[in-house]
Amino acid sequence: MKKNKTDLNRRQFLKSSAVAVTAMAAIGAGVGLIKKVKGSDTRRQDFLRPPGAISEETFIFGCIKCGLCVQICPVQAIKLAGINEALSYGTPYIDVREQPCDFSCDSLQCVETCPTAVLDFRPFKEEGEKVIDEYYRENDVSDPNFNPFKVQIKAMREAVVMGVAKLNENTCLAIKGEGFKGTPRGENFDGVYRSPGRGRSGGRGQGRGRGRGRGFGGGHRSSNREETKASPLREKIFDREICDLCVTECPIGCKAIMMEESYDNNGNPTYKPKILDGCTGCGVCVMVCPTEQPSIIVEPVNQI
Amino acid sequence: MFNSIKNNPPLIPKPMEEMPHSKLGMDYKEWCKSQKGNHKWRNIRWPVLIFINVLFVISFLLDLSVLEGSLSGSRLIGFYLMDPYNALQMLAISSTTGYIIHLTMNFWIGFITIILIYAMMGGRTYCSWVCPYHFIAELAEKLHDFLVEKKRIKEHAFNRYLRYVFWAGFIVLALLTKNLVFEDINPVGIISRAMIYGPGLLLLWILGLVIFEIVYSKRFWCRYVCPLGTTMGMIGTFAPVTIKFELDKCGFCRDCQTVCLVPHVLWFVQRGKATQEIHYAGADCTRCGLCIDTCAGKALTYTVKGLDKLL
After folding, report:
1. A72 and B CB contact within 8 Å
2. A81 in contact with B, Cβ within 8 Å
Protein backbone atom coordinates (compact mmCIF):
# COMPACT_ATOMS: atom_id res chain seq x y z
CA MET A 1 0.00 0.00 0.00
CA LYS A 2 2.73 2.41 1.01
CA LYS A 3 4.81 1.59 -2.01
CA ASN A 4 1.85 2.23 -4.26
CA LYS A 5 1.41 5.66 -2.78
CA THR A 6 5.02 6.68 -3.33
CA ASP A 7 4.84 5.28 -6.82
CA LEU A 8 1.79 7.38 -7.49
CA ASN A 9 3.52 10.40 -6.01
CA ARG A 10 6.54 9.84 -8.17
CA ARG A 11 4.44 9.46 -11.25
CA GLN A 12 2.51 12.61 -10.42
CA PHE A 13 5.74 14.50 -9.81
CA LEU A 14 7.25 13.37 -13.09
CA LYS A 15 4.09 14.30 -14.89
CA SER A 16 3.90 17.80 -13.45
CA SER A 17 7.64 18.22 -13.93
CA ALA A 18 7.20 17.43 -17.58
CA VAL A 19 4.50 20.10 -17.78
CA ALA A 20 6.79 22.55 -15.95
CA VAL A 21 9.73 21.87 -18.24
CA THR A 22 7.49 22.24 -21.28
CA ALA A 23 6.18 25.53 -19.95
CA MET A 24 9.68 26.83 -19.37
CA ALA A 25 10.82 25.60 -22.75
CA ALA A 26 7.89 27.51 -24.24
CA ILE A 27 8.96 30.65 -22.39
CA GLY A 28 12.52 30.12 -23.58
CA ALA A 29 11.38 29.64 -27.15
CA GLY A 30 9.24 32.76 -26.81
CA VAL A 31 12.21 34.77 -25.62
CA GLY A 32 14.29 33.40 -28.47
CA LEU A 33 11.58 34.29 -30.97
CA ILE A 34 11.24 37.83 -29.64
CA LYS A 35 14.99 38.20 -29.84
CA LYS A 36 14.92 37.05 -33.43
CA VAL A 37 12.01 39.27 -34.46
CA LYS A 38 12.86 42.41 -32.53
CA GLY A 39 16.59 41.89 -32.25
CA SER A 40 18.33 42.13 -28.91
CA ASP A 41 19.26 45.72 -29.65
CA THR A 42 16.18 47.81 -29.00
CA ARG A 43 17.94 51.15 -29.16
CA ARG A 44 16.29 53.74 -31.30
CA GLN A 45 15.81 57.45 -31.26
CA ASP A 46 13.32 57.58 -28.41
CA PHE A 47 14.98 54.72 -26.59
CA LEU A 48 18.29 56.00 -25.38
CA ARG A 49 20.08 54.28 -22.54
CA PRO A 50 21.15 56.46 -19.59
CA PRO A 51 24.77 57.68 -19.41
CA GLY A 52 27.47 55.07 -19.06
CA ALA A 53 25.34 52.20 -20.41
CA ILE A 54 27.47 49.25 -21.45
CA SER A 55 26.86 47.18 -24.58
CA GLU A 56 23.24 46.19 -24.99
CA GLU A 57 24.10 42.51 -24.94
CA THR A 58 25.39 42.71 -21.38
CA PHE A 59 22.98 45.41 -20.33
CA ILE A 60 19.98 43.18 -20.93
CA PHE A 61 21.03 40.60 -18.35
CA GLY A 62 23.07 42.85 -16.08
CA CYS A 63 20.20 45.24 -15.40
CA ILE A 64 18.12 43.87 -12.56
CA LYS A 65 15.33 46.40 -13.17
CA CYS A 66 15.44 47.95 -9.72
CA GLY A 67 14.87 51.50 -10.96
CA LEU A 68 17.39 53.17 -8.65
CA CYS A 69 18.61 55.28 -11.58
CA VAL A 70 15.01 56.41 -12.17
CA GLN A 71 14.62 57.49 -8.58
CA ILE A 72 17.85 59.42 -8.29
CA CYS A 73 17.48 61.51 -11.47
CA PRO A 74 16.62 65.08 -10.43
CA VAL A 75 14.89 65.92 -13.72
CA GLN A 76 13.22 62.50 -14.04
CA ALA A 77 14.66 61.92 -17.47
CA ILE A 78 14.97 58.17 -16.96
CA LYS A 79 11.93 55.97 -17.32
CA LEU A 80 11.41 52.23 -17.17
CA ALA A 81 10.44 50.54 -20.41
CA GLY A 82 6.99 49.01 -20.72
CA ILE A 83 5.95 45.72 -22.21
CA ASN A 84 6.17 47.19 -25.72
CA GLU A 85 9.93 46.97 -25.48
CA ALA A 86 9.62 43.20 -25.13
CA LEU A 87 12.80 41.91 -23.57
CA SER A 88 13.83 45.33 -22.40
CA TYR A 89 10.78 45.45 -20.14
CA GLY A 90 11.64 47.23 -16.91
CA THR A 91 14.99 48.54 -18.09
CA PRO A 92 15.79 52.27 -18.01
CA TYR A 93 15.66 54.55 -21.03
CA ILE A 94 15.56 58.23 -21.83
CA ASP A 95 13.10 59.78 -24.24
CA VAL A 96 14.99 62.93 -25.11
CA ARG A 97 12.15 64.68 -26.91
CA GLU A 98 10.12 64.63 -23.70
CA GLN A 99 12.82 65.01 -21.09
CA PRO A 100 16.52 64.86 -21.87
CA CYS A 101 19.42 64.42 -19.49
CA ASP A 102 20.63 67.96 -18.78
CA PHE A 103 23.41 66.92 -16.39
CA SER A 104 21.86 69.00 -13.62
CA CYS A 105 22.75 66.35 -11.03
CA ASP A 106 26.36 67.32 -11.81
CA SER A 107 27.89 64.01 -10.84
CA LEU A 108 26.12 61.45 -13.04
CA GLN A 109 24.25 60.05 -10.08
CA CYS A 110 22.32 57.46 -12.08
CA VAL A 111 25.63 55.90 -13.06
CA GLU A 112 27.00 56.08 -9.56
CA THR A 113 23.92 54.46 -8.03
CA CYS A 114 23.72 51.46 -10.39
CA PRO A 115 24.50 48.37 -8.29
CA THR A 116 25.33 46.06 -11.17
CA ALA A 117 27.45 48.56 -13.09
CA VAL A 118 25.49 48.24 -16.30
CA LEU A 119 25.73 51.99 -16.06
CA ASP A 120 29.46 51.89 -15.66
CA PHE A 121 30.98 54.58 -13.47
CA ARG A 122 34.64 53.60 -13.88
CA PRO A 123 35.42 55.54 -17.07
CA PHE A 124 33.91 58.70 -15.60
CA LYS A 125 35.75 58.25 -12.36
CA GLU A 126 39.04 57.80 -14.18
CA GLU A 127 38.35 60.81 -16.36
CA GLY A 128 37.50 62.90 -13.30
CA GLU A 129 40.62 61.84 -11.41
CA LYS A 130 42.79 62.61 -14.40
CA VAL A 131 41.66 66.22 -14.64
CA ILE A 132 41.83 66.67 -10.87
CA ASP A 133 45.48 65.61 -10.88
CA GLU A 134 46.13 68.02 -13.69
CA TYR A 135 44.28 70.77 -11.88
CA TYR A 136 46.35 70.25 -8.72
CA ARG A 137 49.53 70.48 -10.73
CA GLU A 138 48.53 73.67 -12.51
CA ASN A 139 46.71 75.57 -9.78
CA ASP A 140 47.59 76.88 -6.38
CA VAL A 141 45.64 75.56 -3.42
CA SER A 142 45.78 78.95 -1.70
CA ASP A 143 43.91 80.56 -4.60
CA PRO A 144 40.42 81.55 -3.36
CA ASN A 145 38.95 80.34 -6.64
CA PHE A 146 40.51 76.93 -6.20
CA ASN A 147 37.79 74.41 -6.99
CA PRO A 148 38.83 71.11 -8.54
CA PHE A 149 35.29 69.74 -8.42
CA LYS A 150 34.13 72.07 -11.13
CA VAL A 151 36.63 70.72 -13.60
CA GLN A 152 35.98 67.19 -12.45
CA ILE A 153 32.24 67.54 -13.03
CA LYS A 154 32.87 69.07 -16.43
CA ALA A 155 35.26 66.32 -17.46
CA MET A 156 32.87 63.58 -16.32
CA ARG A 157 30.00 65.18 -18.19
CA GLU A 158 32.03 65.47 -21.37
CA ALA A 159 33.03 61.81 -21.16
CA VAL A 160 29.40 60.70 -21.57
CA VAL A 161 28.46 59.14 -24.89
CA MET A 162 24.79 58.16 -24.99
CA GLY A 163 24.40 58.88 -28.64
CA VAL A 164 25.24 61.41 -31.32
CA ALA A 165 22.95 64.16 -32.50
CA LYS A 166 21.97 64.23 -36.14
CA LEU A 167 20.47 67.13 -38.04
CA ASN A 168 17.50 66.91 -40.37
CA GLU A 169 18.48 69.54 -42.91
CA ASN A 170 15.08 69.63 -44.57
CA THR A 171 13.19 71.04 -41.62
CA CYS A 172 15.86 72.94 -39.65
CA LEU A 173 14.83 76.59 -39.20
CA ALA A 174 18.42 77.85 -39.24
CA ILE A 175 19.11 76.26 -42.60
CA LYS A 176 15.91 77.78 -43.96
CA GLY A 177 17.14 81.06 -42.60
CA GLU A 178 14.18 81.43 -40.26
CA GLY A 179 14.16 82.77 -36.75
CA PHE A 180 12.23 81.72 -33.71
CA LYS A 181 10.15 83.72 -31.28
CA GLY A 182 8.34 82.45 -28.21
CA THR A 183 8.52 79.23 -26.28
CA PRO A 184 9.47 76.21 -28.37
CA ARG A 185 7.19 73.41 -27.17
CA GLY A 186 4.06 75.19 -26.10
CA GLU A 187 2.63 76.22 -22.76
CA ASN A 188 1.80 72.72 -21.58
CA PHE A 189 5.14 71.10 -22.11
CA ASP A 190 6.61 69.61 -18.94
CA GLY A 191 10.26 69.18 -19.84
CA VAL A 192 12.89 70.98 -17.77
CA TYR A 193 16.55 71.74 -18.27
CA ARG A 194 19.29 73.94 -16.94
CA SER A 195 20.09 76.77 -19.28
CA PRO A 196 23.84 77.03 -19.78
CA GLY A 197 23.64 80.79 -20.41
CA ARG A 198 25.23 80.93 -23.79
CA GLY A 199 22.59 83.03 -25.51
CA ARG A 200 24.90 85.12 -27.64
CA SER A 201 27.22 82.45 -28.87
CA GLY A 202 27.32 81.38 -32.46
CA GLY A 203 27.73 84.94 -33.74
CA ARG A 204 24.06 85.85 -33.53
CA GLY A 205 24.33 89.51 -32.64
CA GLN A 206 20.70 90.44 -32.45
CA GLY A 207 19.47 87.06 -31.42
CA ARG A 208 19.02 87.93 -27.80
CA GLY A 209 16.69 85.77 -25.81
CA ARG A 210 14.57 87.07 -23.01
CA GLY A 211 13.03 84.87 -20.42
CA ARG A 212 10.12 85.34 -18.11
CA GLY A 213 9.89 83.35 -14.95
CA ARG A 214 8.84 83.30 -11.38
CA GLY A 215 12.20 82.30 -9.93
CA PHE A 216 14.98 84.52 -8.67
CA GLY A 217 13.17 87.22 -6.79
CA GLY A 218 10.26 87.42 -9.16
CA GLY A 219 12.09 89.65 -11.60
CA HIS A 220 12.68 89.07 -15.26
CA ARG A 221 15.03 86.27 -15.95
CA SER A 222 16.99 86.12 -19.07
CA SER A 223 17.33 82.70 -20.57
CA ASN A 224 20.86 83.78 -21.42
CA ARG A 225 21.86 83.66 -17.80
CA GLU A 226 23.42 80.50 -16.49
CA GLU A 227 21.04 78.67 -14.23
CA THR A 228 22.02 76.64 -11.18
CA LYS A 229 18.89 74.51 -11.28
CA ALA A 230 16.77 73.02 -14.00
CA SER A 231 13.64 75.03 -14.82
CA PRO A 232 10.69 74.35 -17.11
CA LEU A 233 11.15 75.03 -20.79
CA ARG A 234 7.69 76.58 -20.98
CA GLU A 235 8.86 79.45 -18.75
CA LYS A 236 11.64 80.34 -21.14
CA ILE A 237 10.88 82.70 -23.95
CA PHE A 238 13.29 83.11 -26.80
CA ASP A 239 13.59 85.67 -29.55
CA ARG A 240 16.13 84.71 -32.18
CA GLU A 241 16.53 86.21 -35.60
CA ILE A 242 18.01 82.95 -36.78
CA CYS A 243 16.95 79.97 -34.68
CA ASP A 244 19.98 78.68 -32.82
CA LEU A 245 18.41 77.08 -29.78
CA CYS A 246 20.18 73.75 -30.22
CA VAL A 247 23.49 75.57 -30.19
CA THR A 248 22.93 77.95 -27.31
CA GLU A 249 21.14 75.54 -25.00
CA CYS A 250 23.61 72.67 -25.35
CA PRO A 251 25.01 71.83 -21.91
CA ILE A 252 28.35 70.81 -23.41
CA GLY A 253 28.77 73.87 -25.59
CA CYS A 254 31.25 74.57 -28.33
CA LYS A 255 32.83 71.13 -28.12
CA ALA A 256 29.57 69.51 -29.14
CA ILE A 257 27.74 71.82 -31.52
CA MET A 258 28.39 75.10 -33.30
CA MET A 259 26.65 77.36 -35.79
CA GLU A 260 28.42 77.26 -39.08
CA GLU A 261 28.18 80.48 -41.00
CA SER A 262 28.89 80.73 -44.70
CA TYR A 263 27.82 82.77 -47.70
CA ASP A 264 25.89 81.64 -50.69
CA ASN A 265 26.51 82.71 -54.26
CA ASN A 266 24.63 85.96 -53.78
CA GLY A 267 26.72 86.86 -50.78
CA ASN A 268 23.91 86.26 -48.27
CA PRO A 269 24.87 84.50 -45.04
CA THR A 270 23.60 80.96 -44.53
CA TYR A 271 23.59 79.08 -41.28
CA LYS A 272 23.84 75.46 -40.34
CA PRO A 273 24.24 73.85 -36.92
CA LYS A 274 27.22 71.55 -37.02
CA ILE A 275 27.56 68.63 -34.61
CA LEU A 276 31.07 68.02 -33.37
CA ASP A 277 32.90 65.10 -31.78
CA GLY A 278 32.12 66.25 -28.25
CA CYS A 279 28.40 65.51 -28.55
CA THR A 280 27.26 63.37 -25.62
CA GLY A 281 23.80 62.59 -26.96
CA CYS A 282 22.15 64.17 -23.94
CA GLY A 283 19.31 65.36 -26.12
CA VAL A 284 18.65 68.87 -24.79
CA CYS A 285 18.83 70.10 -28.41
CA VAL A 286 16.09 67.61 -29.35
CA MET A 287 13.79 68.87 -26.61
CA VAL A 288 14.25 72.58 -27.36
CA CYS A 289 13.92 72.19 -31.12
CA PRO A 290 10.83 74.25 -32.03
CA THR A 291 9.80 72.39 -35.21
CA GLU A 292 6.89 70.01 -34.90
CA GLN A 293 9.00 66.99 -35.64
CA PRO A 294 12.41 67.60 -34.11
CA SER A 295 14.89 68.75 -36.72
CA ILE A 296 17.66 67.29 -34.66
CA ILE A 297 17.57 63.78 -33.22
CA VAL A 298 19.93 61.65 -31.18
CA GLU A 299 21.10 58.40 -32.64
CA PRO A 300 22.06 55.93 -29.90
CA VAL A 301 25.59 54.64 -29.74
CA ASN A 302 26.06 51.05 -28.74
CA GLN A 303 29.28 51.00 -26.83
CA ILE A 304 31.34 47.84 -26.70
CA MET B 1 17.91 16.69 8.24
CA PHE B 2 14.19 17.07 8.78
CA ASN B 3 13.49 13.84 7.03
CA SER B 4 15.68 11.98 9.45
CA ILE B 5 13.63 13.33 12.34
CA LYS B 6 10.50 12.45 10.44
CA ASN B 7 11.65 8.86 9.96
CA ASN B 8 12.37 8.31 13.64
CA PRO B 9 9.84 6.12 15.46
CA PRO B 10 6.97 8.36 16.56
CA LEU B 11 6.22 9.00 20.22
CA ILE B 12 3.29 7.12 21.69
CA PRO B 13 0.18 9.35 21.50
CA LYS B 14 -0.86 10.72 24.84
CA PRO B 15 -3.98 9.30 26.48
CA MET B 16 -7.28 11.17 26.48
CA GLU B 17 -6.95 12.46 30.05
CA GLU B 18 -3.67 14.21 29.12
CA MET B 19 -5.19 16.09 26.17
CA PRO B 20 -5.31 19.82 26.79
CA HIS B 21 -9.10 20.07 26.58
CA SER B 22 -9.54 17.28 29.17
CA LYS B 23 -7.23 19.13 31.53
CA LEU B 24 -9.42 22.19 31.15
CA GLY B 25 -12.56 20.13 31.35
CA MET B 26 -13.89 21.44 28.03
CA ASP B 27 -15.70 19.84 25.16
CA TYR B 28 -13.20 19.03 22.37
CA LYS B 29 -14.95 20.89 19.56
CA GLU B 30 -15.50 23.89 21.75
CA TRP B 31 -11.87 23.84 22.78
CA CYS B 32 -10.75 23.73 19.16
CA LYS B 33 -12.75 26.83 18.36
CA SER B 34 -11.60 28.77 21.41
CA GLN B 35 -9.01 30.77 19.46
CA LYS B 36 -11.30 31.55 16.52
CA GLY B 37 -11.19 35.22 15.67
CA ASN B 38 -7.73 35.66 17.10
CA HIS B 39 -5.71 37.50 14.44
CA LYS B 40 -2.91 38.89 16.56
CA TRP B 41 0.01 38.05 14.28
CA ARG B 42 -1.92 38.68 11.10
CA ASN B 43 -2.78 42.12 12.40
CA ILE B 44 0.91 42.76 12.90
CA ARG B 45 2.07 41.12 9.68
CA TRP B 46 -0.28 42.84 7.23
CA PRO B 47 0.59 46.35 8.37
CA VAL B 48 4.31 45.49 8.20
CA LEU B 49 3.90 44.17 4.64
CA ILE B 50 1.87 47.18 3.59
CA PHE B 51 4.22 49.58 5.36
CA ILE B 52 7.30 48.22 3.56
CA ASN B 53 5.62 48.44 0.17
CA VAL B 54 4.17 51.87 0.82
CA LEU B 55 7.56 53.04 2.04
CA PHE B 56 8.96 52.16 -1.40
CA VAL B 57 6.23 54.21 -3.04
CA ILE B 58 6.44 57.30 -0.84
CA SER B 59 10.24 57.23 -0.87
CA PHE B 60 10.06 57.85 -4.59
CA LEU B 61 6.96 60.04 -4.54
CA LEU B 62 8.23 62.43 -1.89
CA ASP B 63 11.92 61.96 -2.64
CA LEU B 64 12.63 60.70 0.87
CA SER B 65 15.71 58.53 0.20
CA VAL B 66 14.63 56.07 2.89
CA LEU B 67 13.89 52.97 0.85
CA GLU B 68 14.74 53.60 -2.79
CA GLY B 69 14.45 51.23 -5.70
CA SER B 70 12.02 48.35 -5.90
CA LEU B 71 11.89 44.81 -4.53
CA SER B 72 14.28 43.70 -7.29
CA GLY B 73 16.99 45.84 -5.81
CA SER B 74 16.83 48.65 -3.34
CA ARG B 75 18.73 50.92 -1.06
CA LEU B 76 17.70 51.22 2.57
CA ILE B 77 19.15 54.46 3.96
CA GLY B 78 22.20 54.02 1.77
CA PHE B 79 22.62 50.26 2.19
CA TYR B 80 21.94 48.18 -0.90
CA LEU B 81 19.67 45.14 -0.87
CA MET B 82 19.28 42.67 -3.75
CA ASP B 83 16.67 40.22 -4.85
CA PRO B 84 18.67 36.98 -4.34
CA TYR B 85 17.19 34.94 -7.19
CA ASN B 86 17.63 37.83 -9.58
CA ALA B 87 21.19 38.16 -8.38
CA LEU B 88 21.78 34.42 -8.79
CA GLN B 89 20.51 34.47 -12.38
CA MET B 90 22.65 37.48 -13.10
CA LEU B 91 25.70 35.88 -11.50
CA ALA B 92 25.13 32.69 -13.48
CA ILE B 93 25.04 34.57 -16.79
CA SER B 94 27.82 36.98 -15.94
CA SER B 95 30.17 34.22 -14.84
CA THR B 96 29.91 32.71 -18.31
CA THR B 97 30.45 36.03 -20.09
CA GLY B 98 33.12 37.32 -17.71
CA TYR B 99 31.04 40.31 -16.65
CA ILE B 100 31.16 39.17 -13.03
CA ILE B 101 34.37 41.09 -12.27
CA HIS B 102 32.69 44.38 -13.18
CA LEU B 103 29.98 44.13 -10.56
CA THR B 104 30.19 46.86 -7.96
CA MET B 105 30.94 46.41 -4.29
CA ASN B 106 27.43 47.70 -3.63
CA PHE B 107 26.02 44.70 -5.45
CA TRP B 108 27.95 42.26 -3.29
CA ILE B 109 27.04 44.16 -0.13
CA GLY B 110 23.37 44.02 -1.09
CA PHE B 111 23.48 40.36 -2.02
CA ILE B 112 25.27 39.31 1.18
CA THR B 113 23.14 41.54 3.42
CA ILE B 114 19.94 39.95 2.11
CA ILE B 115 21.39 36.48 2.62
CA LEU B 116 22.40 37.34 6.18
CA ILE B 117 19.01 38.87 7.03
CA TYR B 118 17.03 35.90 5.78
CA ALA B 119 19.51 33.40 7.16
CA MET B 120 18.63 34.90 10.54
CA MET B 121 14.90 35.38 10.00
CA GLY B 122 14.58 32.04 8.40
CA GLY B 123 12.51 30.15 5.93
CA ARG B 124 10.39 32.14 3.59
CA THR B 125 9.91 35.07 5.96
CA TYR B 126 10.23 37.35 2.94
CA CYS B 127 7.10 35.81 1.43
CA SER B 128 4.64 36.57 4.17
CA TRP B 129 6.21 39.73 5.58
CA VAL B 130 7.36 41.59 2.46
CA CYS B 131 6.06 40.09 -0.79
CA PRO B 132 3.15 42.10 -2.23
CA TYR B 133 1.99 39.15 -4.31
CA HIS B 134 1.64 37.10 -1.14
CA PHE B 135 -0.83 39.64 0.17
CA ILE B 136 -2.96 39.43 -2.96
CA ALA B 137 -2.69 35.64 -3.01
CA GLU B 138 -3.68 35.45 0.63
CA LEU B 139 -6.93 37.23 -0.17
CA ALA B 140 -7.39 35.06 -3.24
CA GLU B 141 -6.82 32.02 -1.07
CA LYS B 142 -9.72 33.02 1.17
CA LEU B 143 -12.01 33.29 -1.83
CA HIS B 144 -10.73 29.94 -3.12
CA ASP B 145 -11.41 28.26 0.23
CA PHE B 146 -14.88 29.72 0.26
CA LEU B 147 -15.62 28.39 -3.22
CA VAL B 148 -14.25 24.96 -2.34
CA GLU B 149 -16.40 24.89 0.76
CA LYS B 150 -19.47 25.74 -1.33
CA LYS B 151 -18.41 22.91 -3.68
CA ARG B 152 -18.28 25.26 -6.67
CA ILE B 153 -14.76 24.19 -7.56
CA LYS B 154 -12.39 21.35 -6.85
CA GLU B 155 -9.03 21.67 -5.19
CA HIS B 156 -6.05 20.63 -7.33
CA ALA B 157 -2.79 19.91 -5.58
CA PHE B 158 0.61 19.29 -7.11
CA ASN B 159 3.87 17.94 -5.89
CA ARG B 160 5.66 20.67 -3.95
CA TYR B 161 9.10 19.57 -5.19
CA LEU B 162 8.00 21.02 -8.51
CA ARG B 163 9.46 24.35 -7.41
CA TYR B 164 12.99 22.93 -7.51
CA VAL B 165 12.36 22.02 -11.12
CA PHE B 166 11.32 25.61 -11.78
CA TRP B 167 14.20 26.96 -9.70
CA ALA B 168 16.81 25.11 -11.70
CA GLY B 169 14.87 25.53 -14.93
CA PHE B 170 14.78 29.32 -14.82
CA ILE B 171 18.52 29.50 -14.13
CA VAL B 172 19.18 27.22 -17.11
CA LEU B 173 16.79 29.34 -19.16
CA ALA B 174 18.64 32.50 -18.12
CA LEU B 175 21.93 30.93 -19.15
CA LEU B 176 20.56 29.79 -22.49
CA THR B 177 18.90 33.05 -23.48
CA LYS B 178 21.29 35.44 -21.71
CA ASN B 179 18.28 37.27 -20.33
CA LEU B 180 16.80 37.56 -16.87
CA VAL B 181 13.82 35.56 -18.06
CA PHE B 182 12.25 35.03 -14.68
CA GLU B 183 12.28 38.73 -13.85
CA ASP B 184 10.04 39.32 -16.88
CA ILE B 185 7.28 37.20 -15.38
CA ASN B 186 8.08 37.60 -11.69
CA PRO B 187 4.87 38.86 -10.02
CA VAL B 188 6.84 40.31 -7.10
CA GLY B 189 8.95 42.55 -9.32
CA ILE B 190 6.04 43.42 -11.58
CA ILE B 191 3.75 44.46 -8.73
CA SER B 192 6.52 46.30 -6.94
CA ARG B 193 7.46 48.25 -10.07
CA ALA B 194 3.81 48.87 -10.92
CA MET B 195 3.23 50.41 -7.51
CA ILE B 196 6.35 52.57 -7.60
CA TYR B 197 6.72 53.57 -11.25
CA GLY B 198 3.14 53.28 -12.46
CA PRO B 199 1.08 50.35 -13.77
CA GLY B 200 1.65 48.55 -17.04
CA LEU B 201 0.03 45.91 -19.20
CA LEU B 202 1.92 43.14 -17.47
CA LEU B 203 -0.52 43.45 -14.57
CA LEU B 204 -2.88 41.40 -16.73
CA TRP B 205 -0.55 38.47 -16.21
CA ILE B 206 -0.87 38.95 -12.44
CA LEU B 207 -4.63 39.06 -12.82
CA GLY B 208 -4.56 35.82 -14.79
CA LEU B 209 -2.42 34.21 -12.14
CA VAL B 210 -4.73 35.29 -9.32
CA ILE B 211 -7.77 33.99 -11.18
CA PHE B 212 -5.99 30.69 -11.80
CA GLU B 213 -5.22 30.43 -8.09
CA ILE B 214 -8.82 31.18 -7.19
CA VAL B 215 -10.49 28.72 -9.52
CA TYR B 216 -7.97 25.92 -9.93
CA SER B 217 -5.17 25.44 -7.46
CA LYS B 218 -4.72 27.14 -4.09
CA ARG B 219 -1.54 29.26 -3.85
CA PHE B 220 -0.28 27.71 -7.07
CA TRP B 221 2.50 30.22 -7.72
CA CYS B 222 3.80 30.45 -4.17
CA ARG B 223 3.69 26.73 -3.47
CA TYR B 224 4.82 25.15 -6.69
CA VAL B 225 6.58 27.74 -8.83
CA CYS B 226 8.12 30.82 -7.23
CA PRO B 227 11.91 30.36 -7.43
CA LEU B 228 12.41 33.49 -5.35
CA GLY B 229 10.56 31.91 -2.44
CA THR B 230 12.51 28.70 -2.99
CA THR B 231 15.76 30.64 -2.82
CA MET B 232 14.61 32.27 0.38
CA GLY B 233 13.76 28.86 1.78
CA MET B 234 17.23 27.61 0.92
CA ILE B 235 18.87 30.63 2.53
CA GLY B 236 16.85 30.31 5.72
CA THR B 237 17.00 26.55 6.23
CA PHE B 238 18.96 26.70 9.49
CA ALA B 239 17.65 30.01 10.75
CA PRO B 240 17.38 30.61 14.49
CA VAL B 241 14.05 32.44 14.30
CA THR B 242 11.41 29.79 13.79
CA ILE B 243 8.12 28.29 14.95
CA LYS B 244 8.31 25.96 17.94
CA PHE B 245 5.85 23.13 18.46
CA GLU B 246 5.29 21.63 21.91
CA LEU B 247 3.64 18.27 21.79
CA ASP B 248 2.19 18.30 25.33
CA LYS B 249 0.03 21.36 24.53
CA CYS B 250 -1.29 20.04 21.22
CA GLY B 251 -4.84 18.76 20.87
CA PHE B 252 -4.34 17.30 17.34
CA CYS B 253 -7.15 19.37 15.81
CA ARG B 254 -4.92 20.23 12.79
CA ASP B 255 -6.47 23.65 12.42
CA CYS B 256 -2.95 24.99 11.99
CA GLN B 257 -2.43 22.85 8.89
CA THR B 258 -5.69 24.11 7.44
CA VAL B 259 -4.62 27.76 7.64
CA CYS B 260 -0.98 27.14 6.71
CA LEU B 261 0.33 28.24 3.32
CA VAL B 262 2.78 25.33 3.32
CA PRO B 263 1.07 22.62 5.43
CA HIS B 264 3.85 20.09 5.03
CA VAL B 265 6.10 22.06 7.40
CA LEU B 266 3.62 21.18 10.16
CA TRP B 267 3.77 17.43 9.51
CA PHE B 268 4.25 16.77 13.24
CA VAL B 269 0.88 18.11 14.41
CA GLN B 270 -0.99 15.02 13.32
CA ARG B 271 -1.78 12.53 16.05
CA GLY B 272 0.93 9.88 16.27
CA LYS B 273 3.32 11.65 13.89
CA ALA B 274 5.53 13.63 16.26
CA THR B 275 8.82 11.97 17.07
CA GLN B 276 10.00 14.50 19.64
CA GLU B 277 8.45 16.54 22.43
CA ILE B 278 9.53 19.71 20.64
CA HIS B 279 9.61 20.27 16.89
CA TYR B 280 10.67 23.25 14.79
CA ALA B 281 9.05 24.25 11.53
CA GLY B 282 11.21 23.57 8.48
CA ALA B 283 12.70 25.67 5.73
CA ASP B 284 9.50 26.23 3.79
CA CYS B 285 7.73 27.91 6.70
CA THR B 286 6.93 31.56 5.92
CA ARG B 287 6.81 32.54 9.60
CA CYS B 288 3.43 34.11 8.92
CA GLY B 289 2.04 33.25 12.35
CA LEU B 290 -1.38 32.10 11.15
CA CYS B 291 -0.92 28.76 12.92
CA ILE B 292 0.05 30.56 16.12
CA ASP B 293 -3.13 32.62 15.99
CA THR B 294 -5.36 29.62 15.39
CA CYS B 295 -3.80 27.20 17.88
CA ALA B 296 -6.19 26.55 20.76
CA GLY B 297 -3.59 25.01 23.04
CA LYS B 298 -0.86 27.57 22.27
CA ALA B 299 1.34 24.70 21.24
CA LEU B 300 2.89 26.78 18.47
CA THR B 301 4.98 29.87 19.25
CA TYR B 302 7.67 32.03 17.67
CA THR B 303 11.04 31.22 19.09
CA VAL B 304 14.71 31.98 18.64
CA LYS B 305 16.58 28.69 18.67
CA GLY B 306 19.27 28.62 21.28
CA LEU B 307 18.05 31.79 22.93
CA ASP B 308 15.12 30.03 24.63
CA LYS B 309 17.54 27.63 26.25
CA LEU B 310 19.71 30.48 27.45
CA LEU B 311 16.89 32.36 29.14
Report:
1. yes
2. no
